[in-house]
Amino acid sequence: MRASERIINEVAQGIRSLDDAVAWFSSLEQVEQRAVLHEVVRYAMQAHATVNDAREGLARSGVKPTMTPAVLIVREPILEQMGKIINLPPGEYVKSIRVLLSTFAVADTRRRETECRGTCSHAWHNLS
Questions:
Q1: CA-to-CA distance for 59 and 76, rounded, in angstroms?
Q2: Distance between CA 93 and CA 22 in Å, rounded?
Q3: Which domain of life is it from (predicted)?
């Protein structure tokens, strides 16, 4: 499992704090940060993130609701809005990762509690 995959999923499962993941993210080069943003969006899509997940995620993210990534994440269609978030300028990357990771965490928790409950064989859902 790649470091990014592990860290993203540890946040989603409450094993790692969002602040710790943001510190790791901030240590990456811009090109790597952009790749991680894309990765989180793919995971959120796989978890079937909804605008309701995004609203809850935003509340957990620590990002002010008036910031650009926050404004975008709570609009429909969510997949289109996440695409806009990953195309924001580098100055928005830290706020973007906070919003996207928090949204993914909510969506993935819902998925683990419904679709994957008791029968999950996904390696990323079985971290220990």
A1: 17
A2: 10
A3: Bacteria
